[in-house]
Amino acid sequence: MCSSDLTVHYALALLTTAYLGVDTLLVAGVILVHQRRWDLRMLAGLGGVSLLYAALFVAGTLATGRTAGGESFEALLRVGSASLATLVTWTPWMDLNRHSLAPVLGLLPLCFSLLAPFVPRIGWRPWLPLGVLAGLGALGPVIEAGVAREGGIPSLLWPLLSLGVFAVYRFPVRLAWISALALGGLAARVTDAMGRRARRVAVLLVIVDVLFVSGAWQRLRGHPMPTPSLYGLLPEGAVLELYPRLGGLQEDLAFYNQNLSCYYQLFHGRPILDRCLNTDIRTSPRLEASDRVTALAFAGEELVPELFRLRVASVVMHADLYQPAERSELRSALSRSLGDPLEGHDGGEWLYGWALEDR
Could you report the per-residue pLDDT of 160-219, keeping only the tens digit for each? Predict the structure, then answer.
């Protein structure tokens, strides 16, 4: 591949997702250092695209006031990190809301790749060190065995993850893309070498890994989320959904809330105040309306006139997303004006609902 083609592909990778672009840059850098071949035109192309993208990113960060650091940043990184379990096997969280964070490496490919240095005529450098380091990086600031996000031991790579470009790399789990590429390729070569001597054993191990370890067949199935039955008890009319107010580095979670409301609407069929193709959560009509209604509720004012002005027939509060104290206060404030709510605990959510049809 010539330098211009490589530059174009790198620019397209950055436009696909910044995470893929950063991963691509890391892999390209390792390849260049390993080969010790310096093509000045290629370096100029990669460097120019990187500087342009970095300048746009910094400008956008300064414009929105998003910064990262401190204990809250470490806690945020832990949410976006892999655990030892999620790296080697499939879990339901891997495809949450149809949003795959990273590939599953699989236990057997991981073990096979570690055997590469002992298999003759397999060039394992620099792929094995790169894949292992990327895997450690994907575990984030704390190395955890399961998915409980509790305990664990500090990662040796945490000082690196908290500096420079990694200070805005909010989902370390996406470094597993590098591990999947590097270790997966090595595992394939080891499996091929094993297959020449013990083909049946190699095939059996691969089948076991696919069916029972990495769970690839489970990821081919649909995993629809159930819609809470409380929506079916509400009157036909627009629904105002109340979520905790999120912003800054948690803005992705605000988009998740928006997507959840839009997903539920596919089934309950009532109008909602979300703009489902919205790309700027700060312009969401629901946020403006919910802020106004919440403020009136806490001020002890009557809510029905404002809800009628919004042409809303019901209000739904996603209770389990609030902190306990805030949840209790908001429920009480809304109930003072709207009466006792309906309550639902199915569909994976705890909801309160208030209907206005009789008012």
Answer: 666 655 556 677 888 888 888 888 888 888 888 877 777 787 778 778 877 777 666 666
Of 106, 101, 81, nearest in space to 216 by CA? 106
> Which residues make Cβ contacts (< 8 Å) with residue 22, sequence separation at least 6?
165, 169
Alpha-carbon separation of residue 93 from 10, 79, 80, 100, 323 (angstroms):
30, 11, 11, 9, 22
Task: Select from 338, 330, 284, 282 the least CA-distant residue to 308.
Answer: 338
How far apart are alpha carbons 349 and 148 in whole angstroms? 19
Q: How many other C-beta atoms can be found within 10 angstroms of the C-beta atom of residue 120?
A: 5
**How many other CB atoms are found less than 10 A from the CB of residue 309?**
10
The number of angstroms, rounded, from the C-alpha of 81 to the middle of its chain's C-alpha atoms is 9
Find the helix or strand (DSSP H, E) in which 318 lies: strand 312-318
| Strand-strand pairing, 142-143 and 312-318 | unpaired
Tokens describing residue 80: 């976006």
Other beta carbons within 10 angstroms of residue 269's beta carbon come to 10
